[in-house]
Amino acid sequence: MMDIALETDGERAPVAPTAAAPTLVETVMATIRQRISARSLTPGARLPSIRAFAKAMRVSKSTVVEAYERLAAEGAIRSRPGSGFYAAGSLAPLSLAEIGDFQ
Question: Is the pLDDT of residue 3 over 50?
């Protein structure tokens, strides 16, 4: 593990890198997961192409490829060779809090 030094009042204190900051791949994955959980991507819905999503997220195509591959390995999405990536499986039922005020 690489230590990062932080200078405070003339002293240098070693600080471990923070795990709180997500990587770009994790950010792309979180965006897809959020869209699936918000029902904007329903089971069987086609995900944006790698090129289009990379442009929309302002990341490299390889970042989206890595995110899609990880999500496919988790079972959140499915790859159809020659066709693209699709949201997989059934979704958990919505809670009343997620549905909102229905009066």
Answer: no
The model carries a pTM of 0.69
DSSP annotation string for 5-58: EEEETTEEEEEPPPSSSPPHHHHHHHHHHHHHHTTSS-TTPBPPPHHHHHHHHT
75 in a structural domain: yes
Structure tokens at 83: 């066709």
Identify the pLDDT of residue 6.
42
* Residue 89: pLDDT band with limits 50, 70, 90: confident
Q: Is the dihedral of CA 18, 75, 45, 86 positive or negative?
A: positive
The tally of domains found in the chain comes to 1
Whether residue 38 lies inside any domain: the answer is yes
Please measure the distance between the N-terminal and C-terminal CA atoms of the chain and give it in whole angstroms.
54
Contact 70, 22 (CB under 8 A): no
Per the structure, the complete domain to which residue 45 belongs is given by: 21-89
- CA proximity to 45, closest of 86, 85, 83: 86
